[in-house]
User: What shape does this take?
Amino acid sequence: MKLARIGKRGSEVPAVLDRDGVHRDVSSLVSDFTPEFFAGDGNERLRSSDLSALPAVEGRIGAPIARPSLILCVGLNYVDHANESSMKVPEEPILFTKAPNCLVGPYDEVLTPRGATTVDYEVELAVVIGRQCRYLESPEQAMEHLAGFTIANDVSERTFQLERGGGQWIKGKSCETFNPCGPYLATTDEVNLDGGLDLWLDVNGERRQTGSTHDMIFDIATVIHHVSHFMVLEPGDLVNTGTPPGVAMGMAEPGYLSPGDVMTLGITGLGEQRQEVASA
Assistant: This one.
């Protein structure tokens, strides 16, 4: 299934994208795609229901999950991205968080913070947790605890992150609108990770990022297993798994984002996003 949320910001209704490309309103079956939905095996309840007779719904596409309790990110998870950032290739996953309220829809504006001059982009494969992850026994077990996959743009303000963060990255990662997500959450049965998924991102029609999840330093199973030994991941939590090379910070002449710029990005089988940059 492909789960989506349709409507004005803060008033989205849950929907399922059918094979004809129609969003079916499932609010008569579930209240929203919340942590409670995932913890209660909501995916299975929807899968066992006849959705064909449910009404179609149109409008703005929001983030495919309601506000998570945690947005966890993996830093420098591609060798070439670590190299372009002039940072050491990590020996174990680098973890940081983003404020949950920076989650927005895949086509919403991205706002440059006041005083910002180094706003950057990062296309990433994101996973949503389906079952509590606590001291998992193996990476293989970790994959059984996922609800699905989606696209995230881990927007970053590099000066806030690297020069004003005091050794932490959260200042440069948590500005409002800095985590576009969607357009839908594909359940795990919809996605085949074998061989990798292609990721790409353009700015104003110019290809900036190209990569494959096959090139991750730490694959998804390894990341989730590792994290479960340092914190408890709850149903509905969002995990951004790292970005391939091509970010503005790594360019010979950095092409940071400015109001009026347009980002388009996508991942194989997970759709595409488009964001216009504006001033906060």
Residues 2-47 form one domain. DSSP finds seven helices and 18 strands in the chain.
